[in-house]
User: Fold this.
Amino acid sequence: MDFSLSEERKMLQETVARFFESCYNDIKKRSEYLNMNHGFSREFWKESSNLGVISGLISPSFGGLGGSGEDISIIFELIGKSLCIEPFLSSGLLSSTILSSIKNPKTELINQIIDGELLVSFAHMEMNNRYEDHFVESKAFFENENWKLNGSKSFVINGDSADKVIISARIKGKINDKNGIGLFLVDNNQINNRSYNTIDGYRAAELNFDNINAELLCEDDLALECIIKANSAGALALSAEAVGIMQVCFDLTLDYLKTRKQFGKSIGSFQSIQHRMVDMMLEIEQVRSAVMLASSTFETNSSTRDKNISAAKNLVGRVGKLIAEESIQLHGGIAMTWEYSVAHYAKRLIMIDHLMGDADYHRDRFKLLSSN
Amino acid sequence: MNFEYSENEEKFRTEVRDWLKETLPDYLSEKVRKYQRLTKEDYELFMNNLSKKGWIAWHWPEEYGGTGWNAIEKHIFEEEIVKASAPRIVPFGVNMLGPVLIEFGSEEQKNYYLPRILNNEDWWAQGYSEPGAGSDLASLKTTAIDKGDYYLVNGQKTWTTLGHHADKIFCLVKTDLNVKPQLGISFLLIDMDSQGVEVKPIITLDGEHEVNEVWFTDVKVPKKNLVGKENEGWTYAKYLLTFERTGIAGVPNSKSALNHLKMVSRKSMKNGKPLIEDPLFSSEVAELEIDLLAMEIFNLRTVSAAAEGKAPGMESSLLKIKGTLVRQKTTELLRKALGPQALPYLPEQFDEGWNEMPIGPEYAGSIAKQYFNMRKISIYGGSNEIQKNIVAKASFGL
Assistant:
């Protein structure tokens, strides 16, 4: 075993870290970016592409420069540290994962994503399907030599700014059948979308579509496999992002405990507070370890991949709540303000548990996968 | 012992309920139910109704305008106003300052201020916390210098809830800088429209404006606005805090949130079935309900043991700790019950008259916001850590 990063990856880490920190040096920047037309900074996105951040999420087989579990984790941990809101998850990871996993990979589209020109969102969740991979109600049918889609998708991250959308829809069967699902590529200008900000400061949209034209990417087993793979990649990425956020929460809290004085001394000098910081520290190391394990088995395409990712995401849900709540509590009132950054980190950390499966979902999935 | 409500108590409940049905306008309870932003007039409407009925100062001694209710009746009353989705009673005048004036105020102050509180003529704010004085409240820095017939006040207060609506503020100020902090504090009543008072909004993590900073620059305050004796304000401050704490336990609010949680988890789906049928989730709800059940009795035991017009002592700290944790847990489970439906945040949804389609079920929009907002309750009114210090100091003899 070797727990250290290769020289190449260390370089990636340093370059990306410097770039993110320079653009997101102030929490106010984030609100500025969110208020832009697309819900993020298009300029920052293009610059990320130039620096190879997007290609770091994609395998060399499809024109990228990375795409391993380790690469994804390194980049998303840094995204967490800066709370970047650009479409790294939606376009950079989820959509490119699907476009590269189908029988005839869409390498040209992937290259346009890498170049920062094309945005593709993955629209799988529906209003009532919670976190399931195979609960799909939207319908697909074949008519006059064309695929058509009917239905709606919810909580589509960057669903407003995407040029194209990958939609899961049911070709046949009941809402919860594992068979009969297809993945389709659609031009977003055919879709009626209602965009909004999420409570943690990202842009998402509700999509409604009625008999729109679609291109079939894959169906049945392969479609379900692609959905699971994309959701697993997303859960890994969000777990790594959470590690970055937890570290920032911890550092900000420790810093505050050293400077804030009450009763004539720094509040960090009280033992009851120190013990709580130790609890936080050790839980963060637990999460970091689980995420490292999950990244190392990401490319195996096996149930081990999903079991380890579920372990990581379950821990992220549980520990994330601890870190978010303790960071606010140990700061006191100042952490309740919009102006101070820790609240924004805490909000994102909590809401990560509402994406790609929460702690309960991944605990259940872990139970299934570890009993096989 | 008897844990049943008596016939009279049930009759009292019906009386309160009928009165609320008759006097609380539908639009207002709807706003409260939807967590829409309340205007100053919204709060005042309900409080004026209470005043007219003689119910506003329900925990004051009867001779000062209290209702003479026993602990059980008070509990029933609190429960019914939460159930009816009435706006909360703004506590700073009637629940906090009132009892202090009754106990420590001069006759002149009682005669002037108490009727005004009973009639909602003044909107009071609380001037306790400062940027450098939170948990360690006694280390406050706002000064009031004796200038003969007035005090000259300089300093800054913070976390002033609804201070942007206030006409008056009661403040802890330093009147002696040369003694141990607790010994040099006085309790001063200040008009918000005095020259040199400035209110600045603080926007909280949920994007809302409820709290403020209040700045004092060379503000002249007449000597007659001093409550009790100079430099003995710390005693009055602590007396007030026991009243503040007891309210924060919020048993009726948690009960109503628990019902809401059950409704939401019946409607939320997991694997094609209502979430409430998920054994692990429903166990969490059941444990929360058990905590709340016990806490309700704990609360009633404590309140019943306190003398009329007085707040309980050390137990109010225990109740504050448990009460805030239970309330926070209900908001956590609500958030969890929603799954991804907790993500969208439409700030305009909380404006009066908003009538667009919500994203997902109507109840979804406020839940994550409430979860984050409720983080404050274990911080304010003396953080839970400070309550533990109070209890340990008062009870263990260590």
